[in-house]
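Give me the fold.
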Amino acid sequence: MSPARTVMLRTIGMARNYYATALAMGAFWAISAMLFCANVEIGEGGTLSLGEIWTMSLSPVLPALAAILSMDVWSDERLSGRMDMLLTLPVREFDLVLGKYLGVMALVCGAVVTSWLSIWGVASFVGLPLKFPLLGMMGLLLQGALWSAVGTMMSARFRHAAAAAMAALMVTVIIPRSLWFAMIRWLPEERMPYGMMPLDAHVLDMASGVVSTGMLLGYGILTVLALLITLKYVEMMRLEGYAARISRRSARFVILLSLVVAALTITLAMRMDMTLELPVSEAREFSARTQSILTGAEGEIEINAFVSRGDKRFKPMVQMLRALKREAELSGGLAIRLKFVDPKWDLGEAERLVRMGAAENSIVVRRGRRVASVPLETGTGERDVASAILQVVAPTQRKSVYWTTGHGEAAFGQYDAWGMSDIARELMRDGYINKPLSLDAGEGIPDDCALILVAGAKTEFSRSELARIEAYLLGGGRLLTLLENADNSGVNPILPQWGMKIVSTPKLVGARTLSGSDVIVDDFGEHAISGPLKGTQLVFDRPVAIAPSAATVSGSGADKVEYSMLAGAQGQALAAIGERGVGAGSDLALRPTRVAAVGDALFVMNGQLAARQNANRDFFLNVVAYLSGVDAVVMSGTEEGVLTLKYDRNERIGIVLALVGGIPFALFMLMVLNAVRRRHRT
């Protein structure tokens, strides 16, 4: 057995005897799992994969683990007096340093792999789509190798373990993050091109398949540098006394020279940096709609992330924008220029964006004088940004969504929790114009009407109002109603002739819930509206059930009304559509009539959409797109790769308790029992 391997096994064996090792690893597993659960909650509705979130959660706590595991590999030898014995053995200092380092690195790798196995085990048990992030794991181990080398170096430099740990934390955590904080605060010319902290961005980029050669060389050079300095520290321990002062000075000079050479080499590596796009299973894939927008447009646009870097939504937003920029470069169409503007510190840029009409905490897309803004409150997913890009590069549609008024409906100009200003903004991004419609004025339905929207009417429509709507529908019109209740309010009286009737007492006992008062809807029908949403979930606050009416069995040919269940729960439809003239339009030049009903008036109100833990927004936009005439592929469908968790409140609590409490505590107790057993044996 080689000396280095013997020293490595001895280092691992000694670490297993320490209760501090069990405590450090237990805390690492618990804290990283806590960060993972928090980041998953934040990232739900976004496009970060679970593998990317896992790597992002481990990166900040990995330096602390390496510092604690390596703090006594040399200092303990010095305090116990074993150092003199080691230095008198016929073993090269290189073997001693390499063995100690490999021992620490093995412990760090074991902690990272165990963290992955615990999260993968829980994910497999509950059905989470968690794939192995090969490159993300490599990025974490690359950082772990550097942090282990730095910790080993500090342990050789300081006699006390606590001082060595604190020094390692200063070098790996406090100083780098303080410099980053200072740069984004006081270097206005340098801060805007950057997104998140580079140490965190490195592993996140690798997990998504983006590998920088300069970054790889940088980590490798710094690791070798730390090991070389450790070797010189160990050599100086042999060189005691006045006679060896020249040799000690020579060792210090070598350390200084190696620092200079490493700095120059890293600078050269970064200047010659190449970015590799590797095809990995966790790489982001953009939807066909987004790719079409990027490919079809020409010229250059500017995308400004007008948000504080301290915002919890900043990291996933930056990752998505950087991936979008790379996708545009690969498509060869639109060129995207990214800028990151902190509203508190980039005052000049912030003033420029505000003058354009942009609000703080938003993504601002600009091309010439055309500006589109995506507020973070409404989500910053691929679909949102793609719609904003389309808004500034292409002419808008001249179709209008007419919102009925006068019966207690929610208003598209209402901005509180009970209004629908957020979803109205989404319609504008997709090219629609929102207009009010007062049917009691005696006027007909305007020619530019894409559809009529009844957003939760609380009182009955008059006969004349219903007659105008029926005349519009008989001519191939389109209607969407959000049901307030099961009585005769709104357009409920005319729904039976279009294939739908309201069920007064829906049986939803035992349905899954998030808050206890709502209902999770995850049963989607085979329809162009709901088909793309399978695997996601809707949330209804006050559901109203819908069933097919007698009109679906009467009539034939072009007059036949077809009923389709769109979404439901517990075997009951909570959203449905009735269509007359399906398939006859091409033969008879007949525009099919389409009437859709969603059994919840609160379905897309601002308060419901603020959670972003459901597909309500996407479902609504799918319905609007289909009703307005997009038959084959729903234009505003859900984007690919969106993270959606199909779990209710109790299931989420159970997953968090298992990941943060149960598994880390069980592993911690196993390590403690192993340490007790080993101590008793010795």
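The chain has a mean pLDDT of 81.
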